[in-house]
Amino acid sequence: MAQEGEIALDFSSAANYFKLDEQGVARPEGMKLVDFVVEDKDRILLVEIKDASDVGTAEKDRLAFARRLQTKQLVNETLTPKARDSYCYLHLMEQDKKPCLLVFLLGLEALNTEPALLMGLREQLLRRVRQESDQPWVRRYVSDCVVVGLDGWNKVFPMYPAARVAAV
Q1: How far apart are CA 150 and CA 133, in angstroms?
Q2: E strand segments, the chain
Q3: N or C: fewer beta carbons within 10 Å in the chain?
Q4: What are the respective helix, strand and coil percentages of the chain, to the nearest 5?
């Protein structure tokens, strides 16, 4: 079982997985990295988890996160750099032999969010990872992206079940 805060994921059926941003493990300085890299048969999942529903999250922080979801700040300053830097890390370590799917898993149970917000966030994120400057990237390092809550994760990735558990 892999765990990020209160969200536990069962990657036992994956070909391989590892925690990319693991504390205490030497990683290149200045790189922003996703939480997990999961390799399955045909692709690599770059998994980033943000949990606004964690019991330790103060209400004001939940509200601030909900506001960030509705701006470009989260996509531009957090998610896109994590996707790009994580891919660069995998590329330089020769671990990018399969298409990469960027997955943003949100713990949203404590927030009132509309499904349309997640779809809009997905579209915005996909646009941004494909073009961060005045020209699009020549190499599409992310084939697609998925933005889901915990329930959505279990529908899209039933082979990697996720559940809310007590924090470690």
Answers
A1: 32
A2: 2-4, 7-9, 16-19, 36-39, 44-51, 100-107, 144-149, 162-164
A3: C
A4: 30, 25, 45
Query: Minimal CA–CA distance to 147: which of 128, 166, 168?
Result: 128
The 10 Å Cβ neighbour count of residue 35 is: 23
Measured CA to CA, the distance from residue 109 to residue 122 in angstroms comes to 19
**Among 50, 142, 14, 41, CA closest to 90:** 142
Query: Which residue matches tokens 């917000």?
Result: 117
Phi and psi torsions of 108, nearest 5° = -115, 5
Strands 100-107 vs 2-4: parallel, antiparallel or unpaired: unpaired
* Residue ranges of domains in the chain: 2-164
How far is the C-alpha of 64 from the C-alpha of 61, rounded, in Å? 5
Q: How many CB atoms sit inside 10 A of residue 114's CB?
A: 8
Q: How far is CA 98 from CA 41, 135, 141, in A?
A: 9, 24, 10
Residue 68 in tokens:
């960030």
**10-residue averages of pLDDT along the chain (168 residues):** 94 97 89 97 96 84 83 92 97 96 89 74 95 95 94 96 83
